[in-house]
Design goal:
128 residues; alpha/beta; two-stranded antiparallel ribbon; 5 helices; 7 strands; 25% strand
């Protein structure tokens, strides 16, 4: 992975390619080193080759759940900060928090994504 001006490597996972492209554009423009994946399987392979500084994943990924990636990321890189994105749901927010992930409710703005990634907590909820 290349070092960015922020020093953070971010893995983004979302099966909605429009959202994925937009978030990738926002983070790249902000100076992050970004890898974008539109499939759970591809993201899993990236995680197995090296833990990112921040994992930003959607909750729903086809037949898979983003919480599975959160658990894998925490096993492979316990210091990886994680932000889950989904429509605001109290149970998902609680599950994300229990897995050590922050939570960013959709729809979100560029500023909310940048703040969530910059302040990505290890065991706190991000309030968007």
């Amino acid at each position: 992975m290349t070092e960015s001006s922020t020093g953070k490597y971010v893995l983004i996972v979302d099966d909605d390619r429009a959202v994925l492209g937009l978030v990738e554009q926002w983070l790249t423009a902000a100076g992050y080193s970004v890898v974008a994946c539109d499939r759970f399987e591809t993201a899993k392979k990236h995680l197995e080759t090296g833990a990112p500084d921040v994992l930003l994943t959607d909750v729903r990924l086809g037949a898979f759940n983003g919480l599975q990636l959160v658990i894998l990321a925490k096993e492979l890189g316990p210091h990886t900060a994680v932000v889950m994105s989904a429509f605001d749901d109290p149970m998902l927010r609680k599950d994300a928090n229990l897995c050590g992930a922050g939570y960013l409710a959709k729809p979100f703005t560029r500023d909310q994504v940048l703040a969530a990634v910059e302040e990505a907590p290890l065991n706190k909820t991000v309030k968007a």
